[in-house]
Amino acid sequence: MRVMSSSWGTLLLGGIATLVACATAEEPSEVKPSPDTDGGLPATVDAAPVEREAGPSPEPVEAKCSDAGWCPTALPDEDLVMKDIWPVGERAFAIAESATLGVKVLEWNNADEAWRYIDDTTQNAPGFGAYAGGIWAPSEDEVYYGVAPGYVYHGKRPVPPATAWVWTRQRLQENSGSVDPLAGYPNYWRAATRYPALGIWGTGPDNVYAWFTNTIYHLTSVDGGAPEWLPEYVATDRANSSERLFFLSAAGTGPDDMWFSGARSRTSSGCAILVRKTAAGYRRIADGTLTSIVSPCTARAGALLIGGAHGWLTDIQAVSEGRILGLKGAQDVVKIFLSGDDYSVAAAPVPTSVTVKAMNSLWAGPDDFWLSSRGLLVRSSGDVWNGGGYGVSTIAMNGAPFERHIHRVRGSSNTNIWAIGVRHALHKTTP
């Protein structure tokens, strides 16, 4: 398959979550070895501690739900930092980091209202597990997740609904030119958090994509062989050595309507980048130009400039063919859509009267959309581009404020929404 290259490179990096050396079990024969001689991080690389926050232990699971219907669920270990979640059917899959356990993968089952670990622990072998990437599941019996230093794990439940899982993994080819093993975990200054440039998403079990640093991969069988992660789009047009470029999210409605968002970034500045794949191939829809490490983003010839809040396009979600919503600059919800033969954009900032906090995730439901931040969930009301607004969805319980980071809000319907983060997983089953 031809690799399509546009020009842009590696990413701004920082420290990471704790590298934990767990499992010593022999790796399954179907697991592909790393092209590196040692299969992972250099021995000289030390990882920073996994994210922790001061404060009491999580609220007891028996605590009442919030007035808005957010209910705590019991996690199997109290030091879990829940990073990403994907609800599907009667289940949900999540990926977490822990100072004591490393990266862990969990499954929730509505039938017994409980979380349990489903990983095989090899993701924490020496050289692995420095940070968690994204997670995505095409069904209740199949799941993908990413983990440092650039691996995608694929799990299947061979005899549904049995609890046993079979796991394989493959290393994604590194195309950014970086020798830093932490290239997939940049520090996003606007949200004061790290945001993995490593994830998986698809429109179905037979159309699955991954991204890592500056590259988009498609899971493809060549000449009838086993599926491989083949690079389809590599961004390599850095303006200079201080600039980093990477992908952060994906969305779409089908194989010929795929979108990938990301950033062109320097120390304290960034431009939103958006690429779309249609039947005609890949096209870079949005981009911008940075003139210094702290400069705002300015227009780039031949590309849409996504204005509004300064920063990355971190989350996107398709709402119909040719139309997506995204979180821009940790503050604006933007809609980007095909208008005739060209693309248009409109921004709807979260007003300071609602909150001054930076938003770090977005999920769009059938009737509204949700944003998360530290100790805060924001919900849209009506058309925010045409007279609608935003409001806070309370998560305070027993009269106590909620002060922890909510790394991800995501649902499968307006009666199945999760808000997860530092030592918590809140579930909402009411509209």
How would you describe the overall organization of this protein?
Helices cover 0% and strands 45% of the residues. It is mainly beta and 431 residues long. It has one domain (4-428): YVTN repeat-like/Quinoprotein amine dehydrogenase (Methylamine Dehydrogenase, Chain H, 7 Propeller), CATH 2.130.10. Strands 1-16-15-14-13 form a 5-stranded mixed sheet, with no helix packed on it. β7 (132-139) and β8 (142-147) form a beta hairpin. It is globular. Mean pLDDT is 86; it is low at 1-50 and 52-56.
- Name the CATH homologous superfamily: YVTN repeat-like/Quinoprotein amine dehydrogenase
Q: How does the overall form come out from the CA principal axes?
A: globular
Number of helices: 0
From the N-terminal CA to the C-terminal CA, the straight-line distance is 45 Å
Oligomeric state: single chain
**Strand order in the sheet with the most strands:** 1-16-15-14-13
CATH architect. name = 7 Propeller
